Amino acid sequence: MRRLLVATALSAAACAVPTGAEERIGQVSSAIVNGADSDAAQDAVVLLVRYDPSLPGGTATDCSGTLLSPRIVLTARHCVSDTDPDAACNQEGKSDGGGQVLGEFPARSIFAFSGVTRPDILAGAKGVRGAEILTNGAENICDNDIALVVLESPVPNAPIAPVRLTGTATKAEKATIVGWGVTERGPQPTTRQQRTDVEIEDVGPAPQLGPKEVLVGEGSCSGDSGGPLLAQETGAVIGVLSRGGNGIDRVVPAACLGAVNVYTSAGGHAELIKAAFAKTGESVWAEGERDPRLPPEEDGDDCAVGAVGARGGAPSAWAFGVLSVTGAVRARRRRHRQRSSAG
Question: Can you say whether the dihedral through the CA atoms of 328, 334, 337, 338 is positive or negative?
Answer without folding.
Answer: negative
